[in-house]
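user: Here is a favour to ask of a fellow structure person. I have my own habits and do not want them to colour yours. Could you put it straight underneath, so I can go through it closely?

assistant:
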Amino acid sequence: MYEQIAANKRRAVLCVIAFFFLWVGIGALVGVIAAAVSKQPDSTPNYGGAIAFGAVVAAILALLGVAYSISSGARLVLAVSGAREADPNQYRQLHNLVEELAIGDGLPKPAVYVIDDPSPNAFATGTSPNKAAITATTGLLEIMNREELEGVLGHEMSHIKNYDVRLLLIVTTLIGLAGLLASIVWRNAIFFRPRGRDSGQIMIVVFVAGILLAMVAVVFGPLIKLALSRRREELADVSSVGLTRNPEGLISALKKLQQNDKPFKKFNHATAAMCIDDPLQHHEGWFHRLFDTHPPIDQRIAILEHLAFTKEAPGATS
C-alpha cells in the first residue's frame, strides 16, 4: 500500500506541474495572437518577446494562485461551505474520534468543524498535517454510528497524512482563478468597446483569452482534478481500514452515503472533490462518470469487502 501511495503522490505532483505549464502555455499563446493581430503591414512582429511576456504574466498569476491557496485557501473553503468550529462539549464524540485517529496515525490533531446541513458528508482541507481541518455535516453525524463515523474520519485523516489536501487545494484554486479571470474577460468583452484603429485586434485577443481561460476552468482543470482524485479516494478508503483495523465501519458508512439523495447546499464543482462522496452527483451514468472525481461507491465498497474477506480468510496474512 505504501508503494501505491508513493506512486500516487508522484503522479499528483506531475499533474500539478502539468497544470502550471498549461497556464504558461496559454499565456504564451495569447502573446503570439496579440503580436499577430497587432502586426503592422510593413513590420515583423516580435513573437519571441510576445511569447516571453505572455508566459511570464501567466506564470506569475499561477504562482500567485498557488501562494494564495497555501496561505488562505483552507480558510476560504471553510468559509464558503458554511463551516463553524465544532464545540468540544456538543460534539464530544467527534472530537474524541479525531484525536484518537490522529494519535494512531502519529499526526497532530486537526481542527474540527461542522456544517449545519442535512446532507451526510465530510471533507478534509489544509496544506499539511500541521495545518489541517476535518469537517463533518450535521447530517453525517445524525445517521452514522460510532464505528461508521470512525471509518469516515479515518478516510479524511488519510487524505491529510498523504498531503492530498494540499494538492487538491492548489488545483482547486487554480481552476477557480481561471474561472474568475474568464468571467472578468467575458464581462469586459461584452460591456467594453475599445476605440481606434486597433480596436478589432484588441477584441480578438480578449475573446481568445476568454476562450482559453474558460477551457481551463471547464475542461482541462476538471480533467486534471479527476486524475488527482479518483485513485486517491480508493487509497484513502484502504488507508482508513489500515488505521481503524475495521473495514466494516467504512463499508457500512459508504452504503449509507450511497442512499443519500439530499443535495449539499453550499458546495460546487470546485470544492466537491474534497468530500468523501461527490455531493453533486451519484454516478448515474457513463457521462457523469467521465468527469466524476470519485469512483462509484459500489466499486469502493467492493474493494473494501474484498479486503475484509482476505483478512478474515483462514490462513490469511496481514
